Every structure is written in structure tokens, then in C-alpha cells.
Predict the 3D structure of the following.
Amino acid sequence: MTKIMVVDDEEDVLFVVKEMLREAGYDVIGCISGEECLDRIKREMPDLVLMDIMMPGMDGWAAAAKIKEDPETRHIPVAMLTVRGSKEDKLWSFHWSKCDAYLVKPIDREELLKVSKWLLEGKK
């Protein structure tokens, strides 16, 4: 089964996104911080990571950058899932964090599922 890791410090957002993905047939892992994501990613080896930007401690940009720097995990697509929708935030996410997609909250179920499928299929 395809495994997606969702990283968000807001428990209600984490719950909603996990449920949307589970209903679509995905195996979903939840993490509440960038540190927890990095601690678990090599054990879990998800097929996709959906990452919030603004989190206490290590933010999503730093966690995504570490995923993309590591030879063991750099192949895993990372989509930022955030309230930060400015052009600068998007450019920073793609340039510095090397993310593969950018989704803005509030979460649109159809967009979430389409982008997730696109990334899981190798951005075909």
C-alpha cells in the first residue's frame, strides 16, 4: 500500500488530512514536528511527505531540505502544505527546500488528492 507521511503541529489539521488520504486508500503516518519526521522517515520510508512550514523547533523548510540532502531519502517527493501562500514563500520552498509541490491551506480535498497522485506517479 502507498504510504504518505503528513507532518503538521496542528492536531486538527493533521487529523483532517490523514482522514482525507485514508479515505482515498493510502496508508498514512502522522508526525507533529520536523524533528519527528526526520527521526521516522528512514524507518517508515514513505512514498510522499506532506509538510507544514510553520512548526515549533525545526520548521518545514529545514526538514524538507534535510530530506532532499540525504541520499537515502532525496527521492521521496515533498509537498509543502501551509497557510503561507505568498510568492516569496513558494519560491523559498522550491529553491531552498527543494520541495516538489506547494499546497495552500485551507485544504481542498480534490487538489490534495490530485497533487498527491501526481507526485506518487512521478510527476508524469
